[in-house]
């Protein structure tokens, strides 16, 4: 495997010293601007213009050097192309091997150039974030918007590596031709899937993928899984992921996600009937549905911690607990016990393995497949959400067997218990536990990469400064050390409080938005059976069809947003517009007319649900970019934080439904919608205050 190792990186940094972003000089400039503004000696607008000019010069230096190196690579490739043409006529195997090696040398030099671009891109992102943090207003938004979209943009050369793709194509095509020993002359353009298996091409492709910020549907959907990437990963880490990857295990992991979502929503259409059959009020359905979410608040933490050591053991434990929980849920009818019913749902929540599902994709799927696996995770969740109510619609029967009752309220428990039993056997037989040795290798690779990042940043930061600036080294040392110490820290957080401290105000607002949309969706879904039965006398099958239709909108809506809307509008604009639409949907849901009509309920529910789905996708896409990379690993990761925020929202929403039942069925709808509206308005206000802070 051809890798761009630590020694080569150090050598390159020394050779190309003067062409990297002068990171230390830029930090010193930021400090001076802060001091000048504090004494009111400088206008903030002048500061922005002056810093923009300095960044323009830095980027121009990078781009001119990049063009020079690309020209050199193009010249070498042109010469090799002439040799390639003559070689085809001679059919000399020895010369073919020499030419192949020459192309590999060019590819290695291209890899060095890609590393150069990547390090400068990271340095620019860091200094822009540092400027925003120190000043409290968004320079990044101004600079990127004015530079990146300009027809003569040089910033685009750094972040979009314009021109490098053509060089990659030339190298790939020629290596593929030289490796074609049978003379079939199949072009990579005729068969796009036919790519050379040469290791250096794989390394180049991985580097290009890291630089590319794609906005297609696959990448948009994949970000919904909220698997936060590190800013820079090593080839050794990717190699460890390749060793740990097992396709069938990934399928079983996704099957767990699908079944759990089915398990969550299959009882929604019949929960009110079940509670009344056991002598409780219909609104107790909120407690029945919410008890699963209550347990999930705790299960997410211990499963996330358990996944540090193993994957198959917690998955087996989760399946067994879910099997027991669904069996208790089904038996509660014959035992005539609401307590057995609630215990069964608590067990189902204790078996929630979504933290493991995310963690497995993050740790055991290679980088080139991780986005696809993340998108599959989201699709499995969406399909499970739609299939749950649809399956409940089919379970409309009533019979007894072995003194056990099988009807519309107990069959969801029996069906899911059987499904988890089958899954348990498949998991036991086919799931392959990643070895502990590979886990240790990955940890070593991460530590090695961490030390390399520190070395690189320190090396890049060595500026070619004037002697006058060197005299201020001691004065600025404390500032530099404290800043670098914060950036060098890459260790996983060890507590929820530590994770919370890493959240910026804008990220906290986005987590609150996630809380709001989950609260609104849970109010809508959990009370749907009670509301429709009271106002429209709908049967359980009609409620199930209604919920299934809502669930089926998830993927089409995300396709529209990911493929079209996100390419013409900023995600911040879509975020704010979606919040307003959720607010309008909630407002339209209030019962202010007599009688309350089906079109009003269905239309308002559709607007609320679809807008919340759009909001969830855009919000998590933004969060996956701006949340600290320290939250990409460990027990208390970003996925756990988002899961806890959403689960807490569901718990409070379900509790609200049950409490509102004390005021009577006629007031249930309006009482439950009031907190939802208040929270939504608060989230809109928070978004307006932090609008410019959103990526």
UniProtKB/TrEMBL annotation:
Annotated signal peptide: none
Keywords tagged on the record: Membrane, Transmembrane, Transmembrane helix
Subcellular location: Membrane
Family statement drawn from the similarity comment of this UniProt entry: Belongs to the major facilitator superfamily. Phosphate:H(+) symporter (TC 2.A.1.9) family.
GO MF term list: transmembrane transporter activity
Domain SPX: residue ranges: 2-145
Protein name: SPX domain-containing membrane protein At4g22990-like
Source organism: Coffea arabica
Chain ranges passing through the membrane: 247-268, 280-303, 315-332, 338-356, 377-399, 411-431, 511-537, 543-562, 574-592, 598-623, 668-692
CC annotations in GO: membrane
Membrane topology, record value: Multi-pass membrane protein
Main location: membrane
UniProt xrefs under InterPro entries: MFS, MFS_Domain-Containing_Protein, MFS_trans_sf, SPX_dom, SPXM_SPX_plant
Any single Pfam family the record assigns to this protein: SPX
Domain of life: Eukaryota
UniProt key word Phosphoprotein: no
């Amino acid at each position: 495997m051809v890798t761009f190792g630590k020694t080569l990186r150090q050598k390159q940094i020394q050779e190309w010293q003067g062409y990297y972003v002068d990171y230390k000089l830029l930090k010193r400039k930021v400090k001076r601007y802060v001091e000048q503004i504090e004494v009111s000696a400088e206008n903030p607008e002048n500061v922005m213009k002056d810093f923009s000019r300095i960044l323009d010069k830095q980027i121009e230096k990078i781009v001119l050097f990049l063009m020079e190196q690309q020209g050199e690579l193009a010249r070498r490739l042109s010469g090799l192309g002439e040799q390639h043409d003559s070689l085809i006529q001679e059919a000399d195997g020895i010369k073919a091997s020499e030419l192949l090696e020459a192309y590999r040398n060019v590819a290695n030099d291209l890899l060095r150039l890609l590393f150069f671009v990547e390090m400068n891109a990271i340095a620019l992102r860091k200094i822009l974030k540092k400027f925003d943090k120190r000043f409290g207003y968004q320079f990044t938004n101004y600079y990127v918007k004015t530079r990146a979209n300009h027809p003569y943009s040089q910033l685009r050369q750094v972040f979009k590596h314009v021109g490098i793709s053509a060089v990659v194509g030339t190298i790939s095509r020629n290596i593929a031709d030289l490796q074609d020993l049978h003379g079939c002359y199949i072009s990579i353009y005729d068969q796009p899937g036919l790519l050379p298996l040469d290791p250096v091409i794989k390394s180049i492709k991985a580097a290009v993928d890291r630089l590319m910020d794609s906005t297609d549907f696959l990448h948009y959907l994949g970000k919904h899984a909220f698997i936060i990437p590190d800013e820079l990963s090593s080839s050794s880490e990717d190699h460890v992921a390749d060793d740990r990857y097992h396709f069938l295990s990934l399928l079983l992991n996704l099957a767990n996600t699908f079944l759990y979502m089915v398990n969550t929503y299959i009882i929604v259409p019949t929960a009110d009937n079940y509670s009344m059959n056991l002598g409780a009020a219909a609104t107790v359905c909120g407690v029945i549905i919410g008890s699963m979410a209550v347990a999930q608040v705790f299960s997410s933490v211990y499963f996330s911690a358990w996944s540090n050591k193993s994957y198959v053991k917690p998955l087996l434990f989760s399946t067994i607990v879910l099997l027991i929980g669904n069996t208790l849920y089904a038996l509660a009818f014959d035992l005539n016990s609401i307590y057995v019913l609630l215990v069964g749902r608590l067990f189902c929540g204790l078996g929630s393995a979504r933290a493991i599902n995310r963690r497995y994709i993050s740790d055991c799927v290679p980088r080139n497949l991780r986005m696809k696996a993340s998108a599959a995770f989201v699709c499995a969740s969406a399909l499970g959400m739609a299939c749950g109510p649809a399956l409940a619609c089919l379970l409309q029967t009533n019979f007894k067997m072995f003194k056990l009752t099988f009807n519309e309220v107990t069959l969801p428990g029996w069906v899911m218990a059987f499904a988890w039993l089958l899954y348990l056997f498949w998991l036991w037989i086919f799931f392959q536990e990643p070895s502990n040795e590979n886990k240790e290798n990955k940890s070593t690779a991460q530590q090695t990469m961490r030390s390399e990042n520190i070395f690189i940043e320190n090396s890049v930061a060595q500026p070619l400064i004037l002697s006058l600036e060197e005299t201020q080294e001691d004065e600025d040392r404390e500032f530099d050390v404290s800043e670098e110490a914060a950036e060098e820290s890459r260790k996983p957080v060890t507590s929820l409080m530590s994770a919370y401290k890493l959240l910026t105000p804008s990220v906290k607002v986005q987590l609150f938005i996630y809380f709001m949309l989950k609260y609104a969706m849970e109010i809508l879904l959990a009370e749907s059976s009670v509301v429709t039965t009271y106002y429209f006398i709908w049967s359980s099958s009609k409620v199930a069809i209604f919920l299934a239709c809502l669930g089926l909108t998830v993927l089409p809506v995300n396709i529209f947003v990911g493929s079209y809307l996100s390419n013409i509008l900023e995600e911040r604009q879509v975020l704010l517009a979606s919040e307003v639409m959720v607010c309008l949907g909630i407002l339209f849901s209030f019962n202010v007319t007599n009688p309350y009509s089906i079109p009003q309920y269905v239309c308002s529910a559709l607007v609320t649900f679809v807008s919340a789905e759009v909001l969830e996708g855009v919000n998590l896409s933004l969060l996956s970019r701006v949340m600290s990379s320290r939250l990409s690993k460990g027990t208390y990761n970003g996925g756990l934080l988002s899961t806890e925020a959403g689960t807490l929202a569901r718990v409070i929403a379900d509790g609200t439904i049950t409490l509102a039942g004390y005021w009577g069925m006629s007031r249930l709808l309006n009482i439950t919608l009031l907190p939802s509206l208040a929270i939504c308005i608060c989230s809109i206000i928070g978004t307006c205050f932090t609008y410019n802070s959103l990526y």
